[in-house]
Write the structure tokens for this entry.
Amino acid sequence: MRDDIHEVLFSEEDIRRRVKELGAQITLDYAGKSPLLIGILKGCFVFLADVSRCIDMDCEIRFLTASSYGFSSVTSGKVRIDKDIDFEIEGRHVIVIEDILDSGVTLTALCDYIRERKPASLKICALLDKPARRQVNVSIDYLGFECPDEFVVGYGLDYAERYRNLPFIASLKPEIYS
Ligand code: IMP
Ligand code: MG
């Protein structure tokens, strides 16, 4: 697995420090509010596990599933949302927890879906942002790191369902996905 890595972009230590800061900021901003964290599967699972443990207040944790890439490193432009949700969004202070914002297509579709259900507020917390690839305008309220325009894996992010368990974020050698 580690032989496939080109370069480590964010180390375990970088991530730990930043995630702690994000959690502390959310704790301050939502004082007295009990937010609803909605993790976007599957890429969020490591980030959500860590950031939620740095949010020192009562909160509810739920998940939605979205996929657009299939087994490719380029977005298909079509977003599939698993709409089979069994929880109430109306009136809640929702924070969407996403691994990475690339074209922005996935998050826009998800936010539209959530907004239709009338949350009291809606904010976005994303670990990574690749602004170079944005196709639709999305603003991130809590951002971990800005990421160079490279396909990255690790800390929950996959390529063809692999590498999610790497404890850092890294780019892959080009021959892996070409
Ligand atoms: P978007 O709809 O183009 O913004 O794509 C967002 C989704 O694509 C993310 O939630 C990821 O699951 C996936 N994705 C985008 N860029 C990368 C990457 O560099 N590595 C792994 N997954 C990515
Ligand atoms: Mg993915």
